[in-house]
Amino acid sequence: EDGIRDYKVTGVQTCALPIFRLWSVRSQTRSVFSESPFRYPWLMAATLGAVGLQVFAIHVSFMQDLLGTVPLSLRDWCIVGGVSVTILIIDEMRKFWLRLFHQVKEKEVA
User: Is residue 28 within 8 Å of 107, Cβ to Cβ?
Assistant: First the structure.
């Protein structure tokens, strides 16, 4: 039972990591926290949609039957969020390093 749950949490984690990464790639050197997230409404909508679909697939009974998912506990969601945010933290450290030690010109991804 625990092995299956761990496998399912890993699956959700695999889908959650790119969502966090998307927010970080808007700029090569500027912090993700330097602007309002509402500046990019389509990215905000895509993020909310992706998270909503994950919750839908995991917590709605007919989707659980269709996809073979199991509901995740709050602890499981905290693990997913905690691990997913690490990619953002690592990228923020990389950007800080670039700003601090290298005079890198800003390259926007918009």
Answer: yes
